[in-house]
Amino acid sequence: MITNPTPLFATRDLTVEIPGALGERGIGLRRVTLAVEPGEIVVLAGESGSGKALLARLAAGTADPRMKILSGSIEFEGTSVLDKKRRRLRELRRGPITVIPPLVAAPPDPDRPVRQWLRDCRRVSGKGGRPWDDCFFSAGLHEPEALLRQRLGELSPLALKRLAVARALIVGSRFLIAEEAGSDLDVLGEAAFYELLGRVRDEFGIGALVSTGSLRGVERFSNRVAIFFEGGILEEATPNDLITNPRFAYTREFRACGPCLGDLRRDLPTISREAAREAEASVHQTSSSLAGPFTG
């Protein structure tokens, strides 16, 4: 859904072909139209392989270079990023856009001092930015001098994510991209990180795109949620609407699959074949001309 003529970030009718493990090619995204306004957090939620992480990587400019855009556009502040050179995309990630990848996919340099890392971030961004102490406090890091003396490898996953948010504030980022935001955190850490995203949105007007494999806790910090299935958006709504009145059985069952704090059940719910078939029919109804299996 796009309401503002020039949103912070937008995809329009985006269809992407991606390579498979055995050399075949398939459709990774199917006519995806989505927007993020300034001061808005949009969550991309879905199972593994649904396309939500692919969209986050495309937004960040870190997707597999072998993928092919079949149609549509990706824009940041009204300007296409698809025709930008890699150097320009790196420049965007140094300042206007901050990418927070899953730590398992992009582990930090363990021996690098935090102070030196932040100095390098500020230097390559080319901006003076906000005072470190203020940004650390806003990111929930309350002992800046002690933190600056540590090395990246000594920090917990949650502290590293807080540090990435502090870095975004220091260099003046306007857009955060958090891929698989809770995959490397426990339940309490995930809740704390989501609370932080909501706070910097409210305090600084930063927009964010967050991909996740669970709907757990999204109602506490997000403005809108897009449910992905086989590369397409199955439905998009406010988190409360998705929770109380989902259009599809798949959305309801997908939400039920996420374990909650204190959940001691032996077996977690699964998504029924009927719900998956209904979702498949809906997603493919608007993309019937796209050939090839979905592979990513």
Notable traits:
296 residues, alpha/beta, Rossmann fold, 6-stranded mixed beta sheet, 10 helices, 34% helix
Describe the 3D structure.
- The protein is globular.
- Helices cover 34% and strands 22% of the residues.
- It has a domain at 40-55 and 98-285: P-loop containing nucleotide triphosphate hydrolases (Rossmann fold, 3-Layer(aba) Sandwich), CATH 3.40.50.300.
- Strand 1 and strand 2 form a beta hairpin.
- The chain has helices at 52-60, 86-94, 114-125, 132-138, 144-148, 157-171, 187-204, 239-244, 249-256, 273-285, and strands at residues 9-19, 25-36, 41-45, 68-76, 79-80, 97-100, 175-178, 207-212, 224-229, 232-237.
- Mean pLDDT is 86; it is low at 291-296.
- The chain starts with 8 loop residues before the first strand and ends in an 11-residue tail after the last helix.
- Helix 4 packs across helix 6, helix 6 packs parallel to helix 7 and helix 9 (249-256) crosses helix 10 (273-285).
- Strands 6-7-8-3-9-10 form a six-stranded mixed β-sheet, sandwiched between helices. It has a four-stranded antiparallel β-sheet with strand order 2-1-4-5, covered by helices on one side.
- It contains ten helices and ten strands.
- It is of the alpha/beta class and 296 residues long.
